[in-house]
Every structure is written in C-alpha cells, then in structure tokens.
Amino acid sequence: MEKTTEFLCPMTGRLLDLSAVPDEVFADKVMGDGFAVDLQGKDVVAPVAGVVESVFPGGHAVCMVADNGCQILIHIGLETHHIPGVYRVRVKAGQRVKQGELLVTADYKKVRKHAHSPVSPVVFLNQEKVRILKEDQLVKAGENHIVEITYGGQGECTTA
C-alpha cells in the first residue's frame, strides 16, 4: 500500500542525487534510497511531522519516524563528529516534532571548511523510492516539492 505525505527539504543547499555523496554506504544506497544537499545554510528542520527516534552524539545526524511510518535519517555533512562546536541540537530522542520544526542548528561554514564533505545525505530506511524533482538546484530548508517519494516496505533506524 502506498502512503503519501508532504515532504519538506530539511536544509538549505544544492539538491543532489544520493550517488553524489562521497561515501559508498550512502552513494550505493546500502541504507536506502534518498537524496543529498550540499549544505549552505544553518537550519535543519523536520521534513515531516513525527517522532525523533535518535540524535547521534555530537548532533551530526538525526533519525526520525514520520507519522506515516517512514523512517528518515538526516546526516549533516560527512565526518564532522570530531569538529567541536558545529551543531546545536534543538530536540531529543522521543520528542514529537511538527513538520518544519527546527531539529539542529549547524555552523555550516565550519562544516564546509573542516568536514570531509558538506554533502549531507537524507536517507529513507523503509525501502522508499525517491525521484528528485529539482536536482542540482538551490533549495531551502522548509521548501516543498523537491522530491517525489513512493513509500513502503519495512526498515530499521539505528545509531550505529
């Protein structure tokens, strides 16, 4: 059965195909399909209403479960957990969030300067299929109609 919901872009930057992420686990869709954003803004917002399942140590990633059951991993930059003072986490595990609510504030200039990459993957962990509608275009946190998602399947969200 297909489930649909409005999905907001979680961050500002250039919208990319997941294959553009310079990490094989994400680029090869080992964890699931999705897209990436070349981070160019500080706010990371909830793309859907749901519950924060986990916040990774240091705040570099958030996993949430949408009201429709979709599990979403939002990973902010790559290899940033070692950079002090980059993230200010605004939510905690178990917290219910509204669509568009602020999850994390990122010092995106530090991410762009010190991270392995500022490219930030957004992965759907329940075998969803994603079609990018605005590839290689600038998108803003909270913007709608950036991707088309076909929901379904079963998945698991972990903090490993």
Can you characterise this structure?
The termini are far apart. By secondary structure, the chain is mainly β. The strands form three sheets. It has an eight-stranded antiparallel β-sheet with strand order 8-4-5-6-10-2-1-12. It has a three-stranded antiparallel β-sheet with strand order 3-9-7, with no helix packed on it. A two-stranded antiparallel sheet has the order 11-13. It is built from two helices and 13 strands; from the N terminus they run βαββββββββαββββ. The longest helix is centred in the C-terminal third of the chain and has 7 residues. The protein is globular, with a radius of gyration of 14 Å. Helices cover 7% and strands 36% of the residues.
Sheet with the most strands: spatial strand order: 8-4-5-6-10-2-1-12
- Biggest β-sheet, characterized? 8 strands, antiparallel
Helix content: under 10%
Shape: globular
Please give the count of helices.
Answer: 2
Number of strands: 13
Instruction: Output the radius of gyration.
Output: 14 Å
Uncertain runs with pLDDT below 50, 5 residues or more? Answer: 155-160
Distance between the termini: 30 Å
Order of helices and strands: EHEEEEEEEEHEEEE
**Strand residue content:** 35-45%
Structural class label:
mainly beta
Overall pLDDT confidence? 90
